[in-house]
Amino acid sequence: MANIIISPAKYVQGKGELANIAQYATKLGKKPFILISESGKKRVGGIIEDSFKETGCELVFEAFHGECSKNEINRLVAIVKEKGCDMVIGVGGGKIFDTAKAVAYYVNSPVIVCPTIAATDAPCSALTVVYTDDGVFEEYLWLPANPNLVLVDTDIIAKAPARLLVSGMGDALATYFEAKACQASNATSCAGGHITIAAITLAKVCYQTLIEEGVKAKLAVEADVCTTAVEKVIEANTLLSGMGFESGGLAGAHAIHNGLTCIKECHHLYHGEKVAFGTLTQLVLENADEDLLDEVITFCMDVGLPTTFADLGIENPDKDALMEAATLAASPDDTLGNEPFEVTPEKVYAAMVAADALGRYYKGF
Ligand SMILES: [Zn+2]
């Protein structure tokens, strides 16, 4: 099998960059279809309109209905065709740009992704996660290409709540360890091949960036400013983790995240918050050395990512519920099989309980 890496055709990140969107977009089409939430349009719609002012492009704004479902994708595809738009722009969070990517695929047009938060590593990928109208996971839609452009305005992302950036750090925390597991087991990545030196290097730098800049970035965003540390963490969460997971592969952390979704106490958590605990559990499964565990747990505590069951909202851990989550995580359809050793639900359960014990030890209770 070949070594494969894939990426967006172009990645642009900087303060105030959304104001330059027309400069990039007019190279791809003349009539953009812009998918955005009502509140997103109020916040940044004017910046987009001003950018296109002198271009002669006609903009078609459409409000997102809230779920990346087949019905919503079909509704939007029909509007794009009816209005004769030749490019799709998704502005907002994960579900908006996943929908924009799918719509562009079905109408065979270029797509631009403009994240207004850095809460996951989804913007750069050639993947859309499709849900039912009620928000239940339905399927992965693997797209033939990554976005033509990912445009990241760091001023806008820095203004979003700090918890979203921290959640993005939780998602990015897993990337290097999952890529390393896939490399050790010779697993196939989401890009459809084995890992390149490039992808494992991006994943490693992603982790190093979080450790070096994460706390500084969190404090800056809480103080309502965008600093160099914030910019570095936005790149780690979005580009480094995005390319790292897609061309590096997923393993324990995301499988354990998926297992945790069956525990109702965890439903209030963001994706990256559960992935952070999944990462800690994966490291326990792999029997990582104490120095590494110390670095990861200290990082999580410093930025406010969960390290214990109590942090996840599970006040009274119930063995049956945890076993159910462990069994779901170890399902053959998920990515725990990408760990370089045999993993059973019992081992996952033990690792989750031991991860919680470590987290409590560090917190002093
Ligand atoms: Zn993720």
UniProtKB/TrEMBL annotation:
Pathway: Polyol metabolism; glycerol fermentation; glycerone phosphate from glycerol (oxidative route): step 1/2. Its EC number is 1.1.1.6. It is an enzyme of class 1 (oxidoreductase). NAD(+) binds at G94, K95, I96, F97, D98, S125, L127, Y131. It catalyses: glycerol + NAD(+) = dihydroxyacetone + NADH + H(+). It holds the Pfam family Fe-ADH. One of its GO terms (cellular component) is cytosol. One of its GO terms (biological process) is glycerol catabolic process. Glycerol binds at D121, D171, H254, H271. Binds 1 zinc ion per subunit. Its cofactor is Zn(2+). Transmembrane segments: none annotated. This is Glycerol dehydrogenase. It comes from Anaerobutyricum soehngenii.
